Amino acid sequence: MAAARDLRAIETAGPSDAVELAKRHLVQPWPFAGSVGAEARALIGEGDGIYITDGTGKKLIDGPAGMWCVNIGHRREELARVMYDQAMALSYNTPWYTMNAPSAELAMRIAGYAPGDLSHVFFTTGGSSAVETALRFMQFYNNVRGRPEKKLILSRGGAYHGSTYLSASLNGRPRDRDWMDGADDLVVKLSSPDPFRRPRGLSISAFTDVLVDEFRDTVGRVGADRIGAFVGEPVQASGGVIVPPDGYLKRIRQICRDNDILYVSDEVVTAFGRLGHVFASGDMFGIDPDMITFAKGVTSGYFPLGGVIISERLLEQLRRSNHPDAMFGHGLTYTSHPVGCAVALKNLDILEESVLAHTREVAPYFQAQLKTLEELPLVGEVRGLGLMACVECVADRESNDPLQLDKDVGKRIDAHCHELGLLVRPLINMCVMSPPLIITREQIDDMVSILREGISRTMDDLRKEGVWQG
């Protein structure tokens, strides 16, 4: 009955009413037990270009582009019109025994950008389901080929691959798995390829050798006949925008090829323009994976869609197997959704027309301007690639320790920046920036100026509280 009363009241509801309704009825993602089901977060009312407006009417630069995804910006009428037109023509069809034209055309266009022989696409509802699909396909592939023991998955510290059971089991960020179960018997963890946290006195070249040796030794110790796949982001996004050392990914790819281990490149964040290309694996890092997962920017966040691009070689091996009746028992109600695929086609048109080139043009300026924040004593490193970057705060630069006395320093910076007109993505002691790809140089200047002031105010707060002196 209470919910019914709330439903009637919402006809005249304003921002404050939405906050109260959320506290009563909405379960937020990633909640703490102490506030689960009784929490409201910052209310966003509308968006336009690189800006969003919060529940109080304050205009903010959308620093994270939603969740790494609003690549072509908010309020693009072209996408809204395509969404409407496709829904009016065909709103849905079952993928079990029918298909639609937008999904076939989108698969063809995506395959045209993929490296190597990646030529077939399975569409999902998002990034987690894309990674889950890739892992289930690996299991199916090895079962059909008579290798039921070849199922272990290699992942790395700092990784984030999703929230479904198998994908979440790969995660290696602090706190992600503290209270959550996972398929730990299937996952083997490796070190994060984070040059900033490499052992003291070790050159980046030597650090790369250590990482490669660890990978090779792990394969030798565990057994290549038991390892089915390695899953890695070209740039570890939610782990703090970890850009791997030069040549690292190519060397790991070769070890996988030598040991018949499927290389899954998780491009849920890096694909569709974030690094200036539709896919970063080949164009930025020179690798041709066996599978690529994607989501987010494929529709610029306007519709939930993801997918896996699969090597022709893998599919051909299945077609030639002795088990032609073996079924890949995997699918989703919204696989190849016609509205999502139509939106993605138009989004790709817009990226191709100007946005990819613009991203490549402004990315060096974006990185250079953010790098100036290293002048601040609280900032240990600014790192990034394309239009994604991380500002990592440290207690002192000698040890590069994070702020042990204040693990929520990122939230403090975000709160100050919110007051000043910028939304950031706080990650413990880090602030992640990944704005819409249409951002201009002048808007980059505004963003960096606000972030500088937000960090400066946070330093003042920490000094006053006696938890940091700088």
Tell me about this structure.
The protein has 470 residues and is of the alpha/beta class. Helix content is 39%, strand content 15%. It has 14 helices and 15 strands. A seven-stranded mixed sheet has the order 4-10-9-8-7-5-6, with helices on both faces. Strands 1-2-3-13 form a four-stranded mixed sheet. β14 and β15 form a beta hairpin. α4 runs antiparallel to α12. The N and C termini lie far apart (55 Å). Belongs to the class-III pyridoxal-phosphate-dependent aminotransferase family. Keywords: Aminotransferase, Pyridoxal phosphate, Transferase. Its cofactor is pyridoxal 5'-phosphate.
Estimate the global geometry from the Cα principal axes. globular
Strand segment count: 15
Q: For the residues shown, what is the average pLDDT? A: 94
Unreliable spans: none
Query: Helix count?
Result: 14
* Radius of gyration using CA atoms only: 23 Å
- How much strand? 15-25%
State the end-to-end CA separation. Answer: 55 Å
The description of the largest β-sheet is:
7 strands, mixed
Helix content: 25-40%
**H/E topology pattern:** HHEEEHHHEHEHEHEHEHEEHHEEHEEEH
Strand adjacency order, main sheet: 4-10-9-8-7-5-6
Give the assembly state of these chains: single chain
- What class do helices, strands and sheet pairing give? alpha/beta
Cofactor: pyridoxal 5'-phosphate
GO molecular function: pyridoxal phosphate binding; transaminase activity
Pfam families: Aminotran_3
Keywords: Aminotransferase, Pyridoxal phosphate, Transferase
